[in-house]
Amino acid sequence: MKHLKLIVPLAVLLLSACSKNIQTDEAVKQGIIKHLSQNTGLQLASMDITVSGVTFKDNTAEASVSFKPKGADPASGMQMRYSLERQGSEWVVKKKADSGHGAAMPGINPGAMPASPHGATAPAAGEMPPNHPPMGAGKMPEKK
Fold first, then answer.
1. Are 108 and 102 in contact (CB under 8 A)?
2. Neighbours of 79 (CB within 10 A)
3. More confident residue, 85 or 12
4. Continuous H helices in the chain
């Protein structure tokens, strides 16, 4: 009986030491980087990736993540929202439409082009910008 009193607390201590707390910004960042590294077209080494906020609820997390080129002005970056799910001892980005991937910027109609930062207005749908060569009116050059 004396050994049982010693073994039970020791087992609880060992089990609690083995469970890893992954409700951290760094653990979420690692899950997002792992997800992004599956896209071979991205050069993650040339980006600064910052988790600017995370909300944890049970086995899910909602994260705001900022991306910018290394050494660039923070204003030149972009912000994305990710929904993640805990799987074992890591966070995995959910594959669902409302995870924030490709979401429109607030205040911008997804079908409309925003105004140019240089003061010009965007052309109406189906129109070409000023001084653009005509499209489809001429003959395509022949290949040699």
1. no
2. 14
3. 85
4. 2-18, 25-36
